[in-house]
Amino acid sequence: MTDFSKIRYNKLTMEQKLELVEVFKHYYIDENLAVHEIACILGYDSRTPLRKLMKEFNISKSRELQDKCRVSHRNEDAVIEKRKKTMLERYGYEQPFSVPEIHQKCIDTQKKNNEGRGLSDDAILKAVRTRRPDYDPDFEVLRNKDKLSELLSKYKSVYQVARVIGVGPTIIYKYCDKFDISVPHRSSAESWLYNYLTEDLGINDIICNSRKIIPNYEIDLYIPSKKLGIEFNGNYYHSDANDISWDYHQKKSIVARDNGIQIYHIYEYNYYQKWNIIESQLKSLLGLSDERIFARKCEVREVSSSDATEFLDKNHMQGSRGSQYRYGLYYNNELVSIMTFGKNKFIRKNDDIELLRFCSKLNTNVIGGASKLFKYFLRINNPDKVVSYCDLGRGNGKTYELLGFDFDGITPPNYGWINRSSGEYLTRYQCQMKDEEEIMRSNHFSKIYDSGSLKYIYLRNNLGG
Q: Where are the domains of the chain?
């Protein structure tokens, strides 16, 4: 039988497609297996080729078969148990990936398909320039086994070597696999953060991996003089693949907050892609921003949608978001701080406005900037109520309190999906679909949760407005 997983679907001949149809129908109709189960058996990384086949040849199950395998909320447990029983009877295992032959075939196919993928000059440049236009990859070092080994021995950190060479850590891991180079454990990122804080920023009172700072929890890096804790959350060890609870990050942040300590969470999937923003925020929290500008020396102007999008994508951790009102502070005719507002998406009342985004130019502290922009918004628009949310994993809400907002509770943690193999991160909103859980997990994704948000409400009457 043809090994279809080795051939891209659009490269299959009609004869091969017809052969695949017969094989697929056997498993799909005769055996009544799900598409993702058949994909595993045939060695595919995803169900996409089989979905294309079904569409092209109009393959579907009868109503009777659909009823047999349909999962509803009421009988989900029963169906899962029946599925396990069927797998045990046919293959001796409860899950497809537990079958040694299927599991090994999937691994071999994935390795073969990924061999050399993404290592061409064009692929590397495209990946790097998309995330960090200022990076210029050093291909000579990257493709030299001895030089790459020397850098890894020197820095003991894949992340630092990636920054030195000018690529992402994923590229370094791929070349390490290619050259059969043993690499430092991923937690070495904590070591690199420690070196960055001590050597680059001159912080000399760091306490590492202590469980004595707050009850029941360990803090990776703690700076007593700033009452600031820094957590590095790896993709695997901080996802539910490692059985970490959905509210773990929030509980740790709340316990720290109750003890007068702010925890700044750095997630591995953001570490390389948004390091420039992380670095700027850390400098701000430590009072070490490169530039200080007084808001009284700035001019308030309305900001165009395109300028706001460009500024937020470059300077805000969450990037841009559609907004109704956009105001910025301009210093020497340069936009240095922005605040945007729009209709609150959680509350249907027309008079509820949400403060959506606020940030300043990277590595810049605009003193009094938030106050000047917010007062300007109030004066021009005269809202009765403004709602906003502060990420508990990166902020403490003090700016909102200075603006006259009242604390109104903490929202539940939000989640995203992290791919355990590639490190790709998708927000929950990018994955909202029928059978989301089953589809994402069958494609090697795990859930990873944030700390939730601090909710704040501003009522004009608070300040006699």
A: 4-113, 121-179, 188-285, 291-414+450-463
Q: Which secondary-structure segment (H or E) carries 390?
A: strand 385-391
Nearest to 131 by CA among 277, 274, 279: 274
Q: What is the pLDDT of residues 352-401, one digit of tens each?
A: 799 999 999 999 999 999 999 999 999 999 998 999 999 999 999 999 99
Q: Which amino acid is at 127?
A: A
pTM of the predicted model over 0.85: no
pLDDT at 74: 43
Measured CA to CA in angstroms, residue 22 lies from 27, 38, 54, 80, 272 at distances of: 9, 13, 12, 27, 46
Quickly state the pLDDT bin for 465 (edges 50, 70, 90). very low
Residue 258 CA to residue 253 CA, distance in Å, equals: 9
Tell me the fold of 188-285. Answer: Endonuclease; Chain A (3.40.960)
At position 113, the amino acid (one-letter code) is N
241 φ/ψ angles, rounded to the nearest 5 degrees: -65, -25
Q: What is the mean pLDDT of the chain?
A: 84
Strand partners, 219: 210
Compute how many other C-beta atoms are within 10 angstroms of the C-beta atom of residue 160. Answer: 23
